[in-house]
Amino acid sequence: MLKNCDYKIVRDVLLEKAAPVDTEEVPLQDCAGRVLAREILAQSDIPPFDRSPYDGYAFRAEDTAQASEEQPVTLRITDYIAAGDVPHCPVTAGTAAHLMTGAPVPEGADAVLPFEKTRFTEETVTISEPQKSGSNIVYAGEDVQMGQLLCPAGIRIDAGLAGTLAGQRILRPLVYRKPVVAILSTGTELLEEDEDPSPGRISNTNRYTLQAACTLAGCTAFYAGTARDDEDEISRLLTKAMESCDAVIISGGVSVGDYDCTPAAMEKAGIRLLARGLSLKPGMAGAYGICEKEGKGSGGSGGNGIPVFGLSGNPAACMTAFYAVVLPVLKKRTGLRQYLPEHVRVRLTEDYSRRNQSARLLRGRIDPGGTVQEMQISPRQGNQMLASFAESNAFAEIPAGASLEAGDIADAFLF
Q: Cis link prior to 282 (omega < 30° from 0)?
């Protein structure tokens, strides 16, 4: 078992044990944010035929070769083609087809000219300059060609991809099921929503922050309850939760105090501990393991068990460890091919003179910009200071023993 290791080592050990959950076909209208489970190849050309991008006229370019203001060319209109209609006859020498935006270009025509660049009557169209073959024609397959890879597996369906799938008549794509994550709190001091405040009790904020973070990650999170600081009670809740989930997150009871019994409860529930503690501030306290028993997360999903994350009860420490270790594992379980955080280089706008024996993740805010971006470090970095997460979108990574000044460059990752 790993002890007090670099958080990336612990994260990677857990990632090796994680696999995407099983799949299902879902109606396209319900697929926003879902992760594709197989690559999509184009089943037809887009557009499926040569089409006009304008309301105008289709004709043979060679018929306009000698056209000029002084000697314009007049062509006889032999067809009218609306969008959604089909040509009724081919275009031949000296003729043109009147067509609408999106309408098919008829056989024989190789150029289109918008209305406003012509003079026309109900029976004729007059053109005053030569036109090149292929002008103003959107050719079949110009956007997408049959057999082309439209998108790989492992990406989220956004608005553009939904439209692309609809264009291919893929109306029930195969996607990964949303992983189910159980949230479990420990601590006799925790105050639940149906309880009145009393001395010595504190609100159970971790329940809500973790549920929100899991939902935003593409999971379905549910609250599995709060246990007192009791090994048997935690073990019972944990065992029950694992019957119907793909991952479990526990907050509290993972340090080394007299009432910190979460790691022992995890082992009692059949979880093999892989790591205890991280070389990280905040978020040092923790217990990370895998349950290899049969259950929702280890049966049809093809996974290697249910990951269980025991995080600190201190709100900021809990969420730091969540973003650093837990979130990439959950993203892999959703089926995402890119599950590691996006790293950037940042220039600090404030000094950070405190030297730590372990690495530290400083939360702050960056605004997308150049190769090196300025990052404003929140002054509220304590283990209990959760409010600073609301104004932050990134962690700056401060190596163990380092002291940085305003203007120094640091690695960071977005959350």
A: yes
